[in-house]
Amino acid sequence: MPELPFDLDHLTHFIVRAKYHTYAGDGRPAPSSRPGSVDLTYERDDWRYHDTYFGTRDFMGNEVVYWRDQPVWGMIYYGRVLQPVLLGELWPFLKRALQATYSESRFLGPSVYSEVGWRYEDVNQGATAVFEGYEEIRRHGERVYRLTYTGGLLI
Q1: Closest CA to 112 of 86, 138, 92
Q2: How confident is the model at residue 155 (pLDDT cuts 50, 70, 90)?
Q3: Going by fewer Cβ within 10 Å, which terminus of the chain is more open, N or C?
Q4: Domain region containing 90
Q5: How many domains in the chain?
Q6: Contact at 8 Å (CB) between 150 and 62?
Q7: For residues 100-123, b (16+ Cβ closer than 10 Å) or e, as one string?
Q8: Radius of gyration from C-alpha coordinates of the chain
């Protein structure tokens, strides 16, 4: 791995904070960067996070972290709702599952979160520098949602 101008642990901590304060935390959308996109941003000190996604039931997007205005980390993702389910129940459950993971100061590693009738699971390999994985939600044992993702350093 090349010499980094910042601490990798600091980057990981920033990513967790940014994810917690944007989608999972009902962050307010930023102005759309492209037609039809939803954009979420978070800034702290020399760091800036930008998540852009398109779609609702089936969706895709990307996240980029900038350090001193240089892109240094990114992730791409594609998700789908697989079965008829009320989005007004699914998305709030997903946000609670993500908040539980981020509250443990991490965004990677095995993660499971359950509520009555619902189960979230995130399976991945790698670390902040390079990773891939998927997350699924099951309702009463039936898989109703799946998202795949990959990403890592952009240096």
Answers
A1: 138
A2: confident
A3: N
A4: 8-153
A5: 1
A6: no
A7: ebbeeeebbeebebeeeebbbbbe
A8: 15
Element spanning 79, H or E: strand 70-81
Tokens of 15: 């990513």
**Does residue 43 fall inside a structural domain?**
yes
In a domain, 147, yes or no: yes
* DSSP-assigned beta bridge partners for residue 38: 53
- Six token digits for residue 153: 């350093």
pLDDT in tens, 44-87: 999 999 999 999 999 999 999 999 999 999 999 999 999 988 88
- Residue at 98 is within a domain: yes
Tell me, yes or no, whether 1 lies in a domain.
no
Residue located via tokens 């990513």: 15
* Residues present in the chain in total: 155
Q: Residue 41's pLDDT band (boundaries 50, 70, 90)?
A: very high
Contact criterion met (CB below 8 Å) for 65 and 72: yes
Detail the DSSP E strand segments found in the chain.
38-44, 47-55, 58-67, 70-81, 111-115, 118-127, 130-139, 142-153
Q: Which residues pair with 20 in a beta bridge?
A: none
